[in-house]
Amino acid sequence: MTGVNLKNSLIALTLGFGLASCGNSEPEDTMNVVDTTAQDEVLTEDMFESPDVDYHLPSPLQVASIFKKSGLAYHSNITNSTANASKYTEELKQMLNFGVYSADMAYCVLNEQANEGRKYLGVITTLAEQIGMEAVFENQDLMERFDKNIEDKDSIEILMIDIHERTESYMEENDMQHQSSIHFAGAWTEGMYLGVYDYEKNKEKEGLGSQITEQMAILSNIIKGLKDPKNSGTDLGWLITDLEKIQTTFDGFASVQAYVADENATELELTEADFKTLGDLIKTLRSKIINA
Description:
The protein is built from 13 helices and two strands. It is an all-alpha fold. The chain has one domain. The longest helix is centred in the middle third of the chain and has 22 residues.
């Protein structure tokens, strides 16, 4: 059993916050996330099949929600600037930053920065057109709904779930599901970067460290998705290499190995040195993704 599996408990916990394919869910008042009451349904609905592998990928809003429950603070000017969007001319960078900007939008919305979130919706719409998913955003209803409900965070969260559902449906109908892992690699990296940044600003914040490790439970499925044979025509070698380095480094931490070996352990605590090592790897990968 690897550290990423974390006795499978982190996977179950993470999926408990799954927001994909749950458009009729209602946001919780206490946690500001959409409640998912049927984990099994999420697993069933979100799993898609590849010729060689099956893998579950949650929505970008889930990434932000995992950190939000530990009190992730909003920091202005740390998300990927919308001005960078026009610099992404290669399809892979467009796909990765579609995910990055989706995570940034979720980060803004969950922190009640709706005006900033609207800017990211505009950028996501533009990138969707460039990567062949313009049909997802071709109707003006999404932007109109955003503007109409801009002061209602719960409604904006539901709108984001709708966007995710439309994206997943479109990709399934057009046999593009394998590309979801590329989008989500960008979203996951950005979510981890935001968590690492907040941790570095306030290392005493209770719970944030455990949320960073919780995110690691998702990584193996991202890597599986990127290795889907249908992605063989895309130059993903560098991305897979960097993500695998993050995973093997995490698995090699003495704190992780001790946690996995201890059947009575209930919570994984990384050392400050572990966080620094992990954070440096995340920041390096994030730079590669967002730089044109």
